Amino acid sequence: xxxxxxxxxxxxxxxxxxxxxxxxxxxxxxxxxxxxxxxxxxxxxxxxxxxxxxxxxxxxxxxxxxxxxxxxxxxxxxxxxxxxxxxxxxxxxxxxxxxxxxxxxxxxxxxxxxxxxxxxxxxxxxxxxxxxxxxxxxxxxxxxxxxxxxxxxxxxxxxxxxxxxxxxxxxxxxxxxxxxxxxxxxxxxxxxxxxxxxxxxxxxxxxxxxxxxxxxxxxxxxxxxxxxxxxxxxxxxxxxxxxxxxxxxxxxxxxxxxxxxxxxxxxxxxxxxxxxxxxxxxxxxxxxxxxxxxxxxxxxxxxxxxx
Amino acid sequence: xxxxxxxxxxxxxxxxxxxxxxxxxxxxxxxxxxxxxxxxxxxxxxxxxxxxxxxxxxxxxxxxxxxxxxxxxxxxxxxxxxxxxxxxxxxxxxxxxxxxxxxxxxxxxxxxxxxxxxxxxxxxxxxxxxxxxxxxxxxxxxxxxxxxxxxxxxxxxxxxxxxxxxxxxxxxxxxxxxxxxxxxxxxxxxxxxxxxxxxxxxxxxxxxxxxxxxxxxxxxxxxxxxxxxxxxxxxxxxxxxxxxxxxxxxxxxxxxxxxxxxxxxxxxxxxxxxxxxxxxxxxxxxxxxxxxxxxxxxxxxxxxxxx
Lengths: 307, 307
Fold this sequence. Notes:
Chain A is an alpha/beta fold and 307 residues long. Helices cover 16% and strands 23% of the residues of chain A.
């Protein structure tokens, strides 16, 4: 299985447009040993390597697709993107759909509530409803695996299964609907031929038995690396909310993901969806050395993983 | 007046994600004498050079703001962007607003119908309604000049006047409301101290007496350079619509803007909002040489103009 990280940052990217925190300030000044990152998006190739599935559609999708030649069109009107999979309805995961509006048929996998949250009361979505079947929605139901395919239905050789993960609704829907456990999911993607499994949990506030089982079965896991510590934004004077209030399990705190995941067997463990304030972004920070000593890698734009 | 072009392309950018036309194909291959371009966005500085006004908010706004140091924050939470001006409700002009969602107060200038078109029936907009006055809308009324300012109301030294321009509603609102002539506007921005005037008409299907008067009064004009010819997409086999059906006056046809604008006095005339298919993008194409012989420049990302 070929995996390409197109964007590794949390919402806002790194640096973030209105942020002058030490990380953002110093990366702009060129004095920080850290790479800029666009907002989270990962591409996974079909077993034959010809087609690609995007995990989430970041606002920066245009530059992300251009950044990787395998994702370029092979004809006057063409895209190797067979489908897009949404893990929740956050704008940093969905806004890019509205940048794919050039009358191109799209297949989008999402849970029912994520689909409804994006499509209902959203006049902008009409830009993707210009002809019948411009968008084909396919429903992800936690615990029910299915084979990924594009608009032509041709099998990809990849099975996908959604796993409900503790989370929250997107900010623009908070308070507008009862919370559905399928608002936020992780993914297990398995290559049918090799049995290799990718676990993808880019946002979660905790590790349930189902999440744990998914991670334990994976050959490679991507996991929520938004914040190093619960009070990261508070300490920097940039916000009033703790990581958990934004539905993110911090990495380095007591009870954080470094500690909880220590026993997980996945040979490759990769933090993704990294906030601009996170010390993990700095190449030689003590926090990063601690994560690396625990067997973790830190995702970056352009990272490739082969399973 | 300092003017910085952050993005010079029409919707979809150059190259466009699903386009393999000769321009897009060859620029990706590195065999075309042409520069890549992001989607249209232009920044204009206040008279004191300290604050900036964005004309339109492209989907690629994050990378565009990062591309120019004058637009970077000067504190932990700060932006030199004082306000954003919308010339219509097209997604390539408005989607970027939803990327400025980090709880930062925004001022947006738009006509009433463009504001309503963006805010009504748009649940995504709630991401900009997280606290009172997160967005301050200021109304542009064609023919009524006002002084641009940011959230603090401090005068910018720049007067702005909207000019109704022949256009159409954004695709996602077509057929959903009666057409209002203020759906699509051009801008005249004047430096109060020097009297220098910028005319900005990045999308129009024709030149009315009001548009003509605005252009005639300008020291520099940006004008709709979407398509070279009316049948550009049809000839390339990429679409069924003529330029005029998409509310764009072609550049090079009989009765096109090159011909109509030949007598306009603006010392600098610049085509912007250039579609990926347009031969103007190619540095030495016959079409480009014709435009340059007529006194026109072709906008590119990073272009600077001082008036």
